[in-house]
Write a structure and sequence with these properties.
Order of helices and strands: HEEHEEEEHE
Strand order of the largest sheet: 3-6-1-7
Largest sheet: 4 strands, antiparallel
CATH topology of one domain: Aldehyde Oxidoreductase, domain 3
Distance between the termini: 33 Å
Helix content: 10-25%
Strand content: 25-35%
CATH architecture of one domain: Alpha-Beta Complex
Structural class: alpha+beta
Length: 141
């Protein structure tokens, strides 16, 4: 799983909670293919956990085979906290549980190269099913 080697502050502020308001603001960085010939583009806003990124990476690498090269264009560096089950309100913020990556519409999440177009499209489609957002497969033309 992906996670930072070291973080300066263990607990960050919680981000905005309303996904509809966040979906209006499209991303401006990481919106074009930089490494591979095919990519998985986010069409909606979501917070992707490191476990979800790893699941999508595994299925993409498995489908790409030995000849394919896969790039991950997002990194989960934002810690999120959670209070234990059946704990009363108050008594401070919960303990850090994991890390997330905030993905806005337009962001390229994965890129792939070195495989046939049909294989790349299928690998990225399967990776998209592992993520909690709407995606589409794009290609360099």
């Amino acid at each position: 799983m992906l996670f930072p080697k070291k973080v300066k502050h263990r607990k960050w502020f919680t981000m905005r909670q309303h996904p509809v308001k966040e979906a209006v603001h499209a991303d401006t960085r990481g919106v074009t293919l930089a490494f591979g010939s095919y990519g998985l583009k986010a069409l909606s806003y979501a917070r992707i956990t490191s476990n979800q990124i790893e699941a999508a990476r595994k299925v993409t690498m498995h489908h790409a085979g030995k000849t394919g090269k896969v790039w991950i264009r997002v990194f989960p560096d934002h810690p999120f906290t959670q209070k234990p089950a059946e704990v009363k309100m108050g008594k401070g913020k919960g303990d850090p549980v994991g890390f997330i990556a905030e993905v806005k519409p337009g962001r390229i999440v994965f890129e792939i190269d070195g495989v046939e177009p049909a294989v790349a499209a299928e690998a990225l489609r399967k990776a998209g099913t592992k993520l909690p957002l709407k995606t589409k497969v794009i290609s360099r033309t």
